[in-house]
Amino acid sequence: MATQSSQWNNNTAFLLAATGSAVGLGNIWGFPYKAAENGGGLFVLLYIFFVITLGFPVFMAEVFIGKKGKSNPVSSVESLAAKSNSSKKWGIVGYAGILASLIIAGYYAVIAGFVIDYGFISAQGVAEGTAKDIWANQQSTFFDMTFWTVLFIVGSCYVVANGIDAGIDKAMRFLLPMLFILVLAMVGYGAYQGDFNAGINYLFSWKADDIETTGQAAAIVQAAIGQAFFSLSIGMGTLMAFGSYMPSSQKVSKASGVVVTADTGVALLAGLAIFPLAFGLGFDPKEDAFGGSALVFETMPEAFAQLGVIGQLVGPLFFFLLAVAAFSSMISILEPSVAFLTQKFSMSRMKATGVILLVCISLSLVSIAGHNVWKDVSVGALDNPFEFMKYFADDFLLLLVGTGMSVFVGWRLQKVIDADTMGISNTTMMNLWVFILKWVSPIFLMTIWTLGNLQVLFEYDLLFEIINLF
Ligand code: PFF
Questions:
Q1: Which residue, judged by its Cα, is nearest atom 12 of ligand 1?
Q2: pLDDT score of 2
Q3: Distance of CA 116 to the CA centre of its chain
Q4: Which of 231, 264, 338 to mutate for ligand 1's pocket (most ligand atoms within 8 Å of CB)?
Q5: Best of 329, 360, 405 for a ligand 1 pocket test (most atoms within 8 Å of beta carbon)
Q6: Can you give the pTM of this predicted structure?
Q7: Which terminal Cβ of the chain has fewer Cβ within 10 Å, N or C?
Q8: Span from the CA of 470 to the centroid of ligand 1 (angstroms)
Q9: Closest CA to 365 of 332, 399, 389, 330
Q10: In the prediction, which pLDDT does 442 show?
Q11: Please, what sign has the CA dihedral across residues 145, 151, 154, 159?
């Protein structure tokens, strides 16, 4: 039997688990540099706009499927499809979500492995001027990287294997408060030690002048939507799985609102923690690495090196913060596939986690090799297997699954949707939500998906070609 009877044993468990899932490397490692690279304040505004108009409605759709379907992502979609006289093939949305979650697990664990490694490196102290070499060296060591990555995967699997209450809920109760305290401490430290104004200016100033082509504009919009969805953990089955454990008294809209707000707040705070510190120490975005991995693993360690002994305290604290955020997210990335195996194949939770552990380790090895032995092995237009996995899951699959869920709930589940489960008593609000799911999000997501993929995979600026026709 595909359905399950597990349920969080209290009303805060979903809030903690879903917030722990949403707040992750995407907020602290991803958001600040994507904002900086994509038009600063313009990106931040677009991001917030899409979180409210598309992210929040699709987030609720995903949680709704889980809560109503009461099962793993595939079985939930299939049983709701049956209830609404729709084809069982809708289950493919669930399968695609699980596939995305596994690929993400494969590369996410590698970045988390670096984070743990850097916690130790920064505690030992980094000599000024050496961070760049250390980072190059760390990426070249296949076996070291494998060690930290596997450690991280085994730790996350241990929590998941213990079940939703004794494992996930217990871990989140401890991790999440720690995460918030650490973020606030880093913001406070950045404000005290760094150049707060320069940081705010960099993050929030309007850099629209840099946009020269329509392709660039489309790419910024795609980056903002992709970041909003990734950060909210939409499209990977996690929210369906966590939603399926929701007690009946909990309402989808309220619970989703809390998680979406907390996640957006932490993303903004992370930017306020990182950039003031870097500017305060005289880093220049034109010369120093201010993007992605290089920002966190090159520029930040160099910043800590300049702080001397204090850096040996602040550095590990920063990486500890990142590790906690990554850990709570990784747990949630594993849950959909573990739930799927336990329910669809009647496996014990322990056995299912064991299988997923092996799958994750195998995928992570490919992603690790993308940093060294297969560094120059390009996959299509993407530089190496690591970049490919990131692109395929985050930009390709995620928006597809998001669209699939939106269409499924908006078009097929209209008779199944009920005000009580949603916690929306106002009919106008309910109609607005369904309208967004039916029309706005599918049309918008698929347009951006098409334009963005054409640009990235084929360097083809379709929008420009269309405009040129007139
Ligand atoms: N939302 C997480 C982050 O911002 O880092 C990443 C994530 C977690 C993605 C869970 C997908 C997921 F299922």
A1: 233
A2: 45
A3: 19
A4: 231
A5: 329
A6: 0.94
A7: C
A8: 41
A9: 389
A10: 98
A11: negative
Ranges assigned E (strand) in 49-194: none
Residue 231 in contact with ligand 1 by CB distance below 6 A: yes
Domains of the chain as residue ranges with CATH: 12-469 (1.20.1740)
Report DSSP state, residue 89: G
Ligand 1 centroid from CA 462, angstroms? 30
- Alpha-carbon distance 316 to 307, whole Å? 13
pLDDT for residue 1: 39
Tokens linked to 215: 């392709």
Distance 22 CA to ligand 1 centre (A): 5
Q: Is 389 in the pocket of ligand 1 (CB under 6 A)?
A: no
CA distance 356 to 282: 45
Residue written as tokens 């030992």? 124
Please tell me the distance between residue 25's alpha carbon and the centre of ligand 1 in angstroms: 8
Residue in this structure with the two tokens 């949403």, named with its chain if needed: 22
Q: Does the beta carbon of 101 sit less than 6 angstroms from any atom of ligand 1? A: yes
**Are 331 and 179 contacting, i.e. CB atoms less than 8 angstroms apart?**
no
Candidate from 264, 333, 360 with most ligand 1 atoms within 8 A of CB, to mutate: 333
- Which residue bears the tokens 């990106």? 43
For a pocket test of ligand 1, which of 58, 72, 107, 233 has the largest count of ligand atoms closer than 8 A to its C-beta?
Answer: 233
Q: How far is residue 448 from each of residues 155, 244, 453, measured CA to CA in Å? A: 37, 30, 8
Query: By the 8 A CB rule, do 112 and 327 touch?
Result: yes
How many A from CA of 353 to the centre of ligand 1? 19
The series of mean pLDDT values per 10 residues for the chain, 470 residues long, is: 69 96 92 82 92 98 97 97 96 98 97 97 94 94 97 98 93 93 91 90 78 79 91 97 96 98 94 88 76 83 90 93 95 98 96 98 97 92 92 91 98 95 96 98 94 84 85
Which amino acid does the sequence have at 243?
G
Whether ligand 1 lies within 6 angstroms of the CB of 230 is answered as yes
Residue carrying the six token digits 């929701």: 246
The whole-number pLDDT of residue 5 equals 58
Please name which of 19, 52, 8, 14 lies closest in space to residue 324, comparing C-alpha atoms.
Answer: 19
Q: Quick check: 19 and 258 in contact, CB under 8 A?
A: yes
Closest-CA residue, ligand 1 atom 9, reads: 233
Tell me the C-alpha distance between 190 and 16, whole Å: 27
Check pocket membership of 393 for ligand 1, CB cut-off 6 A: no
What residue type is 43 in one-letter code?
F
